[in-house]
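@channel sequence for tomorrow's demo:
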Amino acid sequence: MDLHGGNVHRLKRDSTRQDTQQWLDYSANINPLGVPRSFTNALTEHRYALDIYPDPDYVDLRQSLAEFSNVEMENVLVGNGATEMIFLFFKALKASKALIIGPTFAEYARAAESAGTQIDYFILDSCDGFKLDMQLLEAQIKQGYQVLTLCNPNNPTGNLLDLQTLKQIIKLCEENQVQLLLDEAFIEFVDSGFQKSAVIFQSPSVFIIRALTKFFALPGIRLGWAVSFNEALNARIGQIREPWSVNCFAELAGITVVKDQTYINDSIAWITNEKRVFRNLLKSLKGIEVFATECNFILLRLPMPLCAQQCRQYLLKEGVIVRDAGNFIGLDSRFIRVAVKDAPSNKRLYQLLKNYLDDQQKSE
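structure tokens (generated this afternoon):
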């Protein structure tokens, strides 16, 4: 199984289907509205940037992202996608032990292990809706960790911790000399998400990850950034990061799209509505458990004895790719994750899932 789900490039290479270009990829949680027109227009106007090195200090880019994040430019670090920022964080910190709240994104563990950091997991229970027990977390943190990682809203569960809980976690980290790696790559999808970001606490104990990948539909650009108020950590990252890791087009994207308020507002309104309709459709499927979500994706659990791998193969034959979530630590083989797309596509997936469930019931 691919670490991050549907490798559409490999699937197309290996497929015997003739219409692979028409496949629906529900495994990638990308804004269905596509690349902002403000960026495509800017590309045409700035072709000359190709023969010029990017600014090694990325002043204009960092200033743009700082204004978008409501912080000072000195608190913004940029990199080749959110993943590079995660790896740089662990490389700079050189922590001996990290605690990862899961199930969650696999790159936290890979980044920690690459830096020689031992990892443990604090797994949330699906039977309790992946609710975080602060008393249990506090007891675990006191076992001698230097790093706590948290994705909020979380991938793949879609859960969002409120500001009061975040404040408690940050205080816990401050009191125990723990650095919190907080991934907010999906915060733009949350209603009033800018008001629910941990940025407002401006704590040196929190390293916040953001990206253009999901909300601005720019995974190919590879631009991520971090908001950090820890001057010493920022300086260490500045010393070890590769020069010019952000290319000129990624730099242009970061300067342009975060100012596109029309795109931002339209995306939030459109996705909020489509998610509500799609989730209600999925909830009508007999036997499938549909989890609550604050993101542009929905986590599902198939009824026993069905498994995600079999369901995924069934859907692949119909030209639809979903995320088999069975390789998330803390989830079992019955979980799948689906993105939110346009209404016709969502109805198609719903019907295919219904057909799959009906076929399985008939074969019993």
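heads up for whoever presents: The chain has two domains: 8-30+261-357, 37-259.
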